Amino acid sequence: MTSQAMSGFWSLWISVITLGVIAFCWWLLYANRKTDKVPAANGEVETTGHAADGIEEYDNPLPRWWFIMFVITIVFGLVYLALYPGLGNYKGLLGWTSTGQWQDEMARAEERYAPIFQQYAQIDIRTLASDPAAMQVADRLYQNNCAVCHGSSARGAYGFPNLTDGNWLYGGDPEVIRDSIIFGRNGLMPAWVDMLGERGVDTMTHYVLGLSGLEHDAAKAEEAAPMYQAICSACHGVDGQGSAAMGLDSIGAPNLTANSWMYVQPGQSVYDSVAFTLRHGRNGLMPAQARYLDYGVELPNNLRSLSAQEKAELLPKVHLVTAYIYSLNQGK
Amino acid sequence: MTEKIPTKDVTPVDAGQHRKSPTTGGPQGELYAKRRHIYVKRVQGLFQKLRTGSNWVLMLAFFFGSFIPWGGRQAIFFDLPNRQFHIFSVTFFPHDFMLLAWLLIILAFVLFFVTNFAGRVWCGYTCPQFVWTWLYIWVEDKTEGSPNQRKKLDKQPLNTEKALRKGAKHFIWVLIALATAIAFLGYFSPILDLIPRILSFDLGPWELFWLGFFTFFTYLFAGWMREQVCIYMCPYARFQAVMFDKDTLIVSYDTARGEPRGARKKSDDPAAKGLGSCIDCDLCVQVCPVGIDIRNGLQYECVTCAACIDACDQVMDKMGYPRGLIRYTTEEELAGRTTKILRPRLIGYFIVLLAMLVAFSVALSNRIPVELEVLRDRNQLLRMTSDGMVENSYLIRIANMDQREHSYTLTLHGVDGVELQGAAVYTLAGGEVRQFPIQVIGNPAQLPGSPAVNIEIRLQSQQDPRIAASRESRFFIRSAR
Ligand code: SF4
Ligand code: SF4
């Protein structure tokens, strides 16, 4: 992280004004020292000439403790300016930065909470998923990191999968969920309109609707069946059961028989959505979350080949969120 | 409106040993005014007794208030880290700060009312600044002796006796300050746990800081600054004058009766010598904790502690004169007229005060110890389910501000055809705050044609149906394209 330095002029400008104001304060204090007016013979004391409601203002000196407080504030100001960055580009003797303070606070929080997270890291994901206290902590992690895309109830949104319906793009096994979170996912559906042609897109859409048991034109579906087996079944499976069901963890081709559609916009028909997908393709990206959830952890190159236990200890917050996502799908 | 009190010439009649006016006293060209140390003489008498009584009550309340137990914890406990403020059976949360604001306003009006009626009785009998100052003066008296002995002691070069006496005084002062700080901290950190931790030097950095802070400032304010706090720092002292009128009780010297002042023997007949009742013994000046001469008239430094009344009454008794040369009186009375107690301003203060007290009690007794917040998901307005239903997500946050566990039933109102999904009952321990995601779901074909409708989410405790809360939110049916 780099901080934007000021140009020499502005740095000087600020320093001169800051120190100038302090010098002015000191001068003001000194200039207002008591020049005690000697009372005239008749006992009249000269006032400042200010009068309000007939009350005149004397020119009395400051009480000593008050004067000392002014001196203290001036000294404090100078010491502060020497220790902390306040004068333009001057860094201060303590080398304090707001970034540094934030890092310190993070480190302190880490020190305080790490033992709790490490304790959870020792517990198997399936067991952890049924521990209400752990899930409360995990819920907070989820709401802060994941809810922005998947929704506070994890039921997904347009373009973001529902995480509660037991229907997985990449598989719902705890270790697979963990990997999805750590490394992220990139699901790519190519555009098929060149291969299928306009009529092919239409008939194939009917075929896909049929797989999920939705209302469709059976004749058109039948027409598309050979094409489906030739092209689509490679990823979506011969029965449309999706890549996860075939044990292909990293493709992410959805199950077409589950009547679960990630790209249906409100008010849009499933037909329109599927036809759009076939014509233009889709590109879904889930960013790798390890660096955000477990902020500051050094990720080793062999992360993929670590054992489940090693991953849990290295990335305890990912471990908790994994258990949370897993818990949402119990009984589905 | 009552007239303003005319300003008085307060230049001392005799600028003798006491209170030199700063404008006439100091040498030229100084950076600041030197403070004259006031050697306060302790006095016995009716008002001093009153004050001792009120001081005892207040100090006992302060020092031992935190020890009162209440259902497994201390009765008055301000739990800052958890932002919960327990006062006996009620627990306040940050959202109750409105109540605190009202309470402070009410206290301000109490102050207006009392000040208008009886002047600065707050300063004289109850203000912690002076309660502690009197305590410190008492210690001073016990360790260093009377004001004359103290003056002599201060002039002496350092010797064993001086060191011992001074040392004892400061030691006791610091002890009192430390006890004060501990008692104060005890309202924020459980006192029964705090005391052993202090004895074993096992304090957190903030506890240590506040302990030092309050010890230091108690010692400084009550030991060293005393009347300086009242004269220069206290806002009340600065604005109390605007609440005064001619019918306000003040401590005053009866000039008509006292002057011309002068020394005399007890057997002398003052009338024959052409003297008033004041024997110019200066006792009223010696006992004054703010170092003024009440005979110069009403002065803003005067905290109406009535020490001078006690002193003067003693003298009057000794001389065989009637008491009350210095007394509680009013401007009107001094001018020979009668005091009007029931005056529009006082009645006004009273009515406002009464109205606010009633409003406050109603607000307090109607306070519902539960809070419900409903936050719509921000990234999406609605979601279509595979069977054509429309679904909206919300995060609800429930704060159980009661001291016991509650199970709350959540219900949805406002539109037919939408219903709540997710748990219908939420159980929270006393003082617990949690958030839960919920869904509201409906069939767009059966809902109004508008893009969105208003819904109302209600929460009701199963244990106490009066404890309920409700929030409005929006339910989006379709995107308005
Ligand atoms: S002037 Fe202020 S600090 Fe002094 S006794 Fe009165 S209220 Fe207290
Ligand atoms: S003048 Fe009298 S009442 Fe006022 S502060 Fe002094 S002793 Fe107290």
Automatic annotation (TrEMBL), chain A:
Places the protein is found: Cell inner membrane
Annotated protein name in UniProt: Cbb3-type cytochrome c oxidase subunit
Organism placement in taxonomy: Bacteria, Pseudomonadati, Pseudomonadota, Gammaproteobacteria, Oceanospirillales
Annotated binding of heme c 1, by residue: C146, C149, H150, M286
Family annotation (Pfam families): Cytochrome_CBB3, FixP_N
Keyword Oxidoreductase: yes
Pathway: Energy metabolism; oxidative phosphorylation
Keywords noted in UniProt: Cell inner membrane, Cell membrane, Electron transport, Heme, Hydrogen ion transport, Ion transport, Iron, Membrane, Metal-binding, Oxidoreductase, Repeat, Respiratory chain, Transmembrane, Transmembrane helix, Transport
From TrEMBL, chain B:
Domain (4Fe-4S ferredoxin-type): residue spans on this chain: 269-297
Keywords noted in UniProt: 4Fe-4S, Electron transport, Iron, Iron-sulfur, Membrane, Metal-binding, Transmembrane, Transmembrane helix, Transport
GO molecular function: 4 iron, 4 sulfur cluster binding; metal ion binding
Transmembrane segments: 56-77, 97-118, 171-188, 208-225, 346-364
Region (Disordered): 1-29
GO cellular component, one term: plasma membrane
Pfam family, one: Fer4_18
InterPro entries linked: 4Fe4S_Fe-S-bd (IPR017896), 4Fe4S_Fe_S_CS (IPR017900), Cyt_c_oxidase_cbb3_FixG (IPR014116), Electron_Trans/Redox (IPR051684), FixG_C (IPR032879), Helical_ferredxn (IPR009051), Ig-like_fold (IPR013783)
NCBIfam families: ccoG_rdxA_fixG
Name of the molecule in the record: Cytochrome c oxidase accessory protein FixG
Organism placement in taxonomy: Bacteria, Pseudomonadati, Pseudomonadota, Gammaproteobacteria, Oceanospirillales
